## 1
Amino acid sequence: QTMGILDALFKQGVGSYHRNYDPRVHGFYSPDRNYGCTDTRLLETKVKDLPAWLGRRNYNPIAICQAIGRAYWRYNLRWISPKNIGAPLLAQACFFPMFIWYVVKYDEHAAEAHSKYH
Amino acid sequence: MASLASRVFLPKQLSLSARLLHTSRAALAIPKGPEREEFIDQGSAKILKSMEAWKEQTKTGLSSVTERFERLHEIYYGKDRDFTNYPPVKMQPHMPKVRLGILPDSWFQAFYNKTGVLGPYILALGVPTFLISKEYWVLDPEGMVLLVSVPALIAFVKKYGQRIKEMEAKKANELDESVIVRPIEAAKDSGRDLVRLTESQLQSFPIVFEEAFKAKREILDLQLEEEYRRRLAEVARTVERRMTYHVELAAAKKSFQQQHLVQWVLDGVTKSITPQQEKEAIQQCIRELRALAPKAA
């Protein structure tokens, strides 16, 4: 039997808390944590364990979207939700997209330097 | 840029008009005659009953809060709770620390043990110079814009960061006040107003008005009685004073008369004694003494 889109989403855990989440163990739910992962963090793994670590990851596209959502919540809860925030937020919103966009579109605008006729 | 103050649970405000209507309707029809006393007792009993019911209502509200707290405390802070890996998260009131107005401080702290304080700065300057010099990164107009705008952004943040922070803090405080502080103050004020209004309304209810009238008349009667008794006492005192005056006056007169008379008589007698009578009286006394002397010896 083929799986519908909703079935695939529900199987991955979309639309509800993670199936491992238990308030008695984990406490209040925070959307910036992965409750299904008991692995070491990326910055704490040794370099020789990296390939094995990468093999254990979940490359389901739905899981990638969930990870992006968690990253957004991590940024939000640290930089936007507090009571007193200020200019760094504005500057970050200007600087990082600028830098990233420059790198991503490098090939498109790099031609200007090499070309003879602009 | 929103705070989590919008998720706060608010208290209900009291409705004045409903309470006043309820109490006023109960007090309008008062029978006269023998049923009056009973009706008044019943009315007060009804008011007391409604007050008890209101107390019960508020009590159940409080008990549900405590029940909820106990239930949730058992869930979130029970035996199975893993505090090392999943500690309780608190909302920080401020942003994390920031270097140069853009980059978080934690990135710099990661380098501190290996390279010291200047590590990340040298990295930030050295890597672009290396890439540019080796022509891995070809500088085009876009690149020049980047190289110039980054210091400009940092300067902007350094200059106007404090001002923006103050503005945002003011906005956050405004939100907090409008959602938490002012509704609670309004509820308190409405409660105080209700108390004041009911007190003033009670004075105008018919039962209370009549009973208060009776009580005031009693008070006046008592005051009049007090004045009457005071005046009686004063009358008695003055009468007694005047009577004693007359009594003492008469006694004084009488004693004076007596004394005067006695003195007058004595003076008359002493004056009437002639020298011959005196001589004869002395000789008679000597003769009697001589006669008595042998008997004494």
## 2
Amino acid sequence: MDKFRMIFQFLQSNQESFMNGICGIMALASAQMYSAFDFNCPCLPGYNAAYSAGILLAPPLVLFLLGLVMNNNVSMLAEEWKRPPGRRAKDPAVLRYMFCSMAQRALIAPVVWVAVTLLDGKCFLCAFCTAVPVTALGNGSLAPGLPAPELARLLARVPCPEIYDGDWLLAREVAVRYLRCISQALGWSFVLLTTLLAFVVRSVRPCFTQVAFLKSKYWSHYIDIERKLFDETCTEHAKAFAKVCIQQFFEAMNHDLELGHTHGTLATAPASAAAPTPPDGAEEEREKLRGITDQGTMNRLLTSWHKCKPPLQLGREEPLLMGNGWAGGGPRPPRKEVATYFSKV
Amino acid sequence: MDKFRMLFQHFQSSSESVMNGICLLLAVVTVKLYSSFDFNCPCLARYNALYGLGLLLAPPLALFLCGLLANRQSVVMVEEWRRPAGHRRKDPGIIRYMCSSVLQRALAAPLVWILLALLDGKCFVCAFSNSVDPEKFLDFANMTPSQVQFFLAKVPCKEDELVRNSPARKAVSRYLRCLSQAIGWSVTLLLIIAAFLARCLRPCFDQTGFLQRRYWSNYVDLEQKLFDETCCEHARDFAHRCVLHFFASMQSELQGRGLHRDNAGRSPEPPAVPEPPEVLDSGSGKAHLRAISSREQVDRLLSTWYSRKPPLDLAASPGLCGGGLSHRAPTFALGTRLSQHTDV
């Protein structure tokens, strides 16, 4: 009992802190990935924008989906959404709560990536170097004389210092400083905006539907814990099943040997005396089996766990395995005794 | 301390957690291996592609095989696939489930290597520098085609005299790296979308079948482990009894000789075979182990375990003799008990 309570507490404390921990680790990993990633602007007119847009958007999407995939609650949400109602009604508010909480945690790493990218500036520089106002920043008189493709080709090389050859038109440092400044301003605005949004959502939420929120939070935690405990109970059952099966196999072998060796050389008395009575350790294992001792019953138990989840009401002793295909629809009406009178007219 | 022990037990309890741990370890080893590997492009026309592609594909293959080797469940799966049906019918769904879980975990480390190689770019640049279209780069206008090919082959080597400080080399190298990174990120994105969809959509298809297959594949794994443990226990018990038996028989032989010397007329007593002392048999339920007490019996037990696994029905009374004892067919020995359980 004590062990069970310790396990329960461990699971309870583990759920929220585990996901928060994963979220924090992914945010750090996101920043680390950016610094390890070797940004490599192609410096060709058509490709710059595509490359930068890709680097700004693809890794955040990957991180977001990774955050969702690593969260076990995703498959739990899908299961809860797709299960037949059985004897337990489905509550869409709980599903919405689960989805929101998962999405919020998964959004942190992408936001960190976008913020770090903008604050660093290389991506922005690569994307918008061809849109720099040459007339304002460089030798404005020379710019109109150049054909547009030539101008684009020149400006596209701004992010690459070793191949830039347009110093006569526009000093590279000027363009780089200009674009990085804009990028950092955008980056800080983005950070401020997201932080403000998060703050507003967090402080304002209790003003609306706090009761519904508490209920959704409770039942979503409940569903998660119930699923974990079911998996653990199944594993315990499988272990007990295996132990008893193997013991019976050894006993059966012994039994077999005795039948084969009745004219016998080694009918050892203690062994034959012990075979009919199950050893003490086996009793404990058999209790863990909770009466489910064969494959067909176990399969039916697993089927009805999915198709017909038990109601959220403890203390009712109705049998669950009522034969195949009983989906249930609600609690059964109590039986009424009806007396009929037959007249002999 | 208690919490750590519980944490350890929690991870050890499920074989899935152990396998996840091994998979993660292998991925970390891959990252370390890639970063410490000294990439060395040959910069010769025909060898570049071979080296680059070889390095992109051969280590992942080796890592995949390592992943399969390190995973105990791959052996369990093959055993379950090849065993004779015996008293327990075989379920192909379980074998498929185990196969897919083993493959998924084994694929993690190779994918990490391939993605790292693509995002880094060196392999790609080395392999495809000769396949670049020189038209894209204006610097090759005044070179003969063979000169161009020779030049392109040297692109991956920054320090070579021909291409050192050449803007053309930098442009080609930059272009190829950019392409490599784009492919790397696209592959990552595709994989992660596939993983996400697989995780989301799985409960929409045959959830009950999935629960059953997961339970029984876990069972098969546990049963294998427990059988190995029981055999070890039995071997220990057997060895112990054998040794004690030997000492006891030696002792009684000495006693017998002593008696014979004292009483010359009597026929020598056959060395008695006393029961091994009961000190270690504390009634802890090991009687079923002590019954198997000879080499032939042990061999027979092991071959029966392989050729005729017991049925998944614990209510059946022990008795392996007589063929065709399956949990489907009612038998003379079990009477009415089996007929209650209908097949799902």
